[in-house]
Amino acid sequence: MTAKIAYDEVEVGTELPAQTFPVTRATLVRYAGASGDFNPIHWNEKFAVEVGLPDVIAHGMFTMAEAVRVVTDWAGDPAAVVEYGVRFTKPVVVPNDDEGALIEVSAKVAAKLDDRQVRVDLTAMCAGQKVLGMSRAVVRLA
Fold it and tell me: Using one digit for the tens of pLDDT, what is the confidence trace for 89-103?
């Protein structure tokens, strides 16, 4: 596969389609099984509170992966992402109810680089707080 977005058709400031990703306790259990990360802060409310968290929190790598979906969906090919990094600024708190939490992600092209690449800056929010900082992806376009 290759990116479906043409480098020549993208300008600095181009906004990618924003997406919202729901996270429930069931989501966290499935991710724990897939990743092998069974840290009780991600599933045991009593333990999470005892260690100073407000409640169970989503895995940082899960949050990071959900956020970059905005970029991979836009590019049309996950392999088009050649570099990706974030800073974890706030946890995604996932209450034990039918709604869970929502990770709201927006992104825009921040720079055009050499070799048909662009830098995309992402903003990931949950409950009105930024949960990822310095979230940037370098994407090779068609």
Answer: 999 999 999 899 999
